[in-house]
Write a structure and sequence with these properties.
Elements: H1 3-14, H2 24-41, H3 47-56, H4 68-81, H5 86-98, H6 101-106, H7 114-126, H8 129-142, H9 160-164, H10 169-175, H11 180-183, H12 187-210
Bound molecules: adenosine-5'-diphosphate and nickel (II) ion (NI).
Length: 213
């Protein structure tokens, strides 16, 4: 079987139990958005590395697995078994280890390759817009966070531990989501990110208005 097909099946299997908005459908959309970025910006990249990283990017994340180290070892072995070269294995693992908002903000994230920057923008677009609003609410439900509490103000986090402490869905918009458009690497990512953020701001205006009754 073609390598990318094996990787897609691996992602599907490993995300089957995922219930916080980082499921296989999110991996598929990340991959489609990455393709869109490549086309729109006319980028010359290794498409296999982009697609593979898009499908696998959340599998070794502490949000999805209780043992990221073990998930990483298992993934490395799998990539070797389907005959990925050691350059491909390293390229994919380096991207997925360094792409997340939390690793960029709180850890010493390595600079990303162009392939990594594309997947990072695709993943960030997934956190924005109508889908982003629903994913934040879905994540909140899974973690027992409240939707909104006017007595809790948004925080500026300094450690990953604090960032992972429960917040509210609406605070997450200010704590992370609205910061994303400025952090984009690609032209399409930035433009689409701003468009999606504008929609979310519109949504918030309506949300606050409903609460004034
Ligand atoms: P990354 O994997 O880039 O570090 P996050 O851990 O911030 O990203 O989470 C990815 C997605 O999970 C977010 O875009 C959001 O949809 C959801 N999420 C994470 N933390 C929260 C939170 N505290 N409240 C609501 N949604 C969250
Ligand atoms: Ni993701």
């Amino acid at each position: 079987m073609e390598k990318i097909k094996c990787i897609i099946s691996y992602a599907q299997e490993n995300l089957a139990q995922e219930k916080t908005g980082h499921d296989f459908a999110h991996a598929q959309r990340t991959s489609s958005l990455a393709e869109k970025i490549i086309k729109t910006d006319g980028l010359q990249v290794d498409d296999f590395i982009v697609m593979a990283s898009a499908y696998l990017h959340d599998i070794i994340d502490d949000k999805v697995t209780s043992d990221p180290e073990k998930a990483q070892q298992k993934l490395r072995l799998f990539l070797q078994q389907i005959d990925c070269s050691s350059t491909e294995v390293e390229a994919i693992l380096t991207i997925i280890q360094n792409l997340s908002f939390s690793s960029e903000k709180f850890a010493e994230a390595k600079p990303l390759s162009l392939e990594g920057k594309i997947v990072q923008d695709a993943d960030r677009l997934e956190a924005l817009g109508a889908g982003g609003i629903l994913r934040a609410a879905y994540f909140s439900g899974a973690h027992g966070q409240t939707i909104y509490d006017p007595n809790i103000s948004p925080q500026d986090f300094h450690t990953k531990e604090d960032y992972r402490k429960p917040s509210t869905t609406i605070n997450h918009f200010y704590e992370k989501l609205f910061l994303l458009p400025e952090m984009m690497n690609t032209s399409y990512g930035k433009k689409e990110g701003i468009r999606r953020k504008t929609f979310m701001q519109e949504f918030l205006r309506e949300f606050y208005q409903e609460r004034q009754v």
